[in-house]
From TrEMBL:
This is Permease of the drug/metabolite transporter (DMT) superfamily. Signal peptide: none annotated. Pfam families: EamA (PF00892). The keyword Zinc does not apply.
Length: 110
C-alpha cells in the first residue's frame, strides 16, 4: 500500500470516527450526562492509545516542534467539545420542551 492510499484511508477513518461520534453521543446522552459521557470517551481513548503504544502497533516519536504545533488543537478541541456539547444538549432539551408546550396548546384549541 503506497503513502497516498494510506493518507486517504487515514482521512476516511478520521471522518468516519468524527461523524459517528455525534451519533453515538446523541444515543449516550439518553443514558448519562454530557460530562459523564466525555469522561468515558476520553478514558477509553487514552486506554486504547496506551495499549497500541505498549504492543508497538504505533510508534510515537515527537520532537519539541511537533508537540508545540499539536498543543493548541489538543487543548482547544476538548475545551470546545466540553463547552458546546452541554450547551447544545441544553438547547435541544429546551426546544423539545417548547415543542411539547406548543403542541399541547395547539391540541387544546380544538
Amino acid at each position: 500500500m503506497n503513502e497516498k492510499t494510506k493518507a486517504y484511508l487515514a482521512a476516511l477513518s478520521f471522518s468516519a470516527i468524527i461523524g459517528f461520534s455525534f451519533l453515538f453521543t446523541k444515543i449516550a446522552l439518553g443514558y448519562a450526562s454530557p460530562l459523564t459521557n466525555l469522561a468515558h470517551r476520553y478514558t477509553i481513548a487514552a486506554l486504547v492509545m496506551v495499549v497500541f503504544h505498549q504492543t508497538k502497533l504505533i510508534k510515537v516519536s515527537l520532537s519539541r516542534k511537533d508537540i508545540l504545533s499539536i498543543l493548541p488543537m489538543s487543548l482547544f478541541y476538548p475545551l470546545f467539545f466540553l463547552f458546546f456539547n452541554p450547551l447544545l444538549y441544553s438547547i435541544y432539551r429546551l426546544l423539545k420542551l417548547e415543542f411539547y408546550r406548543l403542541l399541547s396548546r395547539f391540541l387544546r384549541s380544538f
